[in-house]
Structures are given as C-alpha cells and as structure tokens.
C-alpha cells in the first residue's frame, strides 16, 4: 500500500508556506489535486499525485454568507438533508448574481434556516451564517414585516376585509394590525409582522375563504424579485432586512 499524507502538509512543503496558510489556501478553493479542486486540508494524497496552487490564489478569510432562496411548493424548509437546503448548489445560483462570492463548501458550516415556511407554501426563505442576520430574523422576528400572496376562493365582504386588517389572535399570540388587500379577484396580499406557520390559512378559513396556494414574496426590506422556484442568491453586503 502506497504511503499518503495530508494535503495541507504536502502543499506547505511544496509552496514553502506555513501549515496554517496551506489550510487557508485549500479551504479557499485554491488547490487542485490531479486537476480537481479539493477543499479539505486533511485530504490524503499520494506521492505521485500532482498538487497545484491555482492562478489567482490568495490568502483571504471567507466572510459569513446569507442566502436568499425561492422554496418550491412541497419542499421542506429546514436544515436536514432532503430539504430546501439541498437546492443551494451552483447550478441553481441566480444568473448574474452580483455578490462576487465564491461557492465553497465551508459556506455550509453553521448555515441555518432562520425563516420557517410551511411545506405547502412557496416563496422566500433565508439561510444564514451571520449572527446579526439570525438575531434580526429570529430574536427580533416579531418586528420584521413579511409579505405574502394568497390564492383563495370564496367571497369576502368589505366588513370582513376590515376585520382582517385589524388582525386576529392565534396560538396565544395577540392580534396585531396587518395590511390586507386584493391583488386581483383571486389573490389576496398580506403584509404582517412574522406570522406563525398556519396563521394565514387560519385567517382565510375564519373569513370563509379557501386557501389554494400561498407564496411569501418579501422578508423585511428584501423581496424575492428575480428568483424563480428553486433558485437562490447571496445577500449583497449593502442589503439589510
């Protein structure tokens, strides 16, 4: 059996750099083994394998990322395999993404869903590594307005519409005013502070409407605009929720 060694050790020897710098090059996606990029410093390489430091390689710390994703109907939104998180792959990245962020495996370290959404609903969900974003959308979530479009059947009187706008209590949460308006004759637009899962369906049922489909189109200041179902993009540095 041929001997092998850690990629970081081999790179440090060949590039006359420290082991720490070698690991940063590798984790930064700047190192190829036999022509294939490898991002694991502990990857084992044999003596006959070719190690290449790619053109443009530089030592840099990857900034934490936040991902905006358009979750399709029927897909779970959580942190487990088989969920919407699996859609965060290069082929689904929004064409023309302006973040200049490189897609690296370490962007999934600690990447968490911070905006739950029902499986039956579609629309914008947020995954993040950034503590300030998580705090804003989780700890301070009740103060963040979200916007939804609900496809419904049934009739709604002006009085019922006014009653909905005053808000409704749900699952122990007190009623707070919300903006409700007709987008067209079959679609209602809701703008309200982070609703609990199931709340909009409950509101529709209470008003005698049947909810056919639900789509979240905005969280805070950030809209889903431009993302088709299954697509994602990075949050730009200047964007705030």
User: Can you tell me the residue ranges where pLDDT is under 50 for at least 5 consecutive residues?
Assistant: none
Give the CATH superfamily of the largest domain.
Answer: Pseudouridine synthase I, catalytic domain, N-terminal subdomain
Proportion of strand residues: 25-35%
Ends distance: 55 Å
The best one-word shape is elongated
Gyration radius (Cα, Å) is 23 Å
Q: What is the CATH T-level topology of the largest domain?
A: Alpha-Beta Plaits
The domain count comes to 3
The CATH architecture assignment of the largest domain turns out to be 2-Layer Sandwich
Query: Helical amount among residues, as a percent range?
Result: 10-25%
CATH C-level name of the largest domain: Alpha Beta
Number of strands: 14
Number of helices: 5
Protein name: Dual-specificity RNA pseudouridine synthase RluF
Domain RNA-binding S4: 5-60
Keywords: Isomerase, RNA-binding
Catalytic activity: uridine(2604) in 23S rRNA = pseudouridine(2604) in 23S rRNA; uridine(35) in tRNA(Tyr) = pseudouridine(35) in tRNA(Tyr)
Describe this structure in a few short sentences.
This protein is an alpha+beta fold and 241 residues long.
Description:
Helices cover 18% and strands 27% of the residues. It is of the alpha+beta class and 241 residues long. The protein folds into three domains: 50 residues, Structural Genomics Hypothetical 15.5 Kd Protein In mrcA-pckA Intergenic Region, Chain A (Roll); 89 residues, Pseudouridine synthase I, catalytic domain, N-terminal subdomain (Alpha-Beta Plaits); 75 residues, Alpha-L RNA-binding motif (Alpha-Beta Plaits). The strands form three sheets. Strands 6, 7, 8, 9, 10, 11, 12, 13 and 14 form a nine-stranded mixed sheet that branches. Strands 3-2-5 form a three-stranded antiparallel sheet. Helix 1 crosses helix 2. The radius of gyration is 23 Å and the shape is elongated. It catalyses: uridine(2604) in 23S rRNA = pseudouridine(2604) in 23S rRNA; uridine(35) in tRNA(Tyr) = pseudouridine(35) in tRNA(Tyr). It comes from Achromobacter seleniivolatilans. Keywords: Isomerase, RNA-binding. InterPro entries: PsdUridine_synth_cat_dom_sf, PsdUridine_synth_RsuA/RluA, RsuA_PseudoU_synthase, S4_RNA-bd, S4_RNA-bd_sf.
């Amino acid at each position: 059996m041929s001997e092998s060694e850690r990629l970081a050790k081999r790179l440090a020897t060949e590039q006359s750099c420290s082991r720490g710098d070698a690991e940063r090059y590798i984790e930064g996606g700047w190192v190829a083994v036999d022509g294939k990029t490898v991002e694991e410093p502990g990857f084992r390489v044999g003596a006959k394998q070719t190690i290449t430091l790619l053109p443009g390689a530089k030592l840099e710390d990857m900034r934490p990322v936040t991902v905006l994703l358009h979750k399709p109907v029927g897909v779970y939104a959580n942190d487990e395999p088989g969920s919407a998180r699996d859609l965060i792959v290069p082929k689904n990245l929004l064409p023309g993404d302006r973040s200049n962020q490189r897609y690296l495996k370490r962007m999934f370290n600690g990447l968490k869903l911070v905006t739950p959404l029902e499986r039956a609903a579609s629309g914008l969900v947020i995954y993040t590594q950034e503590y300030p974003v998580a705090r804003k959308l989780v700890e301070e979530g009740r103060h963040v307005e979200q916007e939804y479009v609900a496809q419904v059947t049934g009739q709604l009187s002006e009085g019922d519409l006014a009653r909905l706008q005053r808000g409704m209590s749900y699952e122990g949460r007190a009623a707070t005013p919300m903006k409700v308006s007709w987008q067209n004759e079959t679609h209602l637009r809701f703008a309200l502070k982070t609703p609990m899962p199931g709340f909009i369906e409950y509101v529709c049922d209470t008003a005698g409407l049947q909810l056919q489909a639900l789509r979240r189109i905005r969280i805070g200041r950030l809209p889903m605009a431009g993302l088709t179902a299954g697509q994602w993009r990075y949050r730009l540095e200047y964007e705030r929720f």
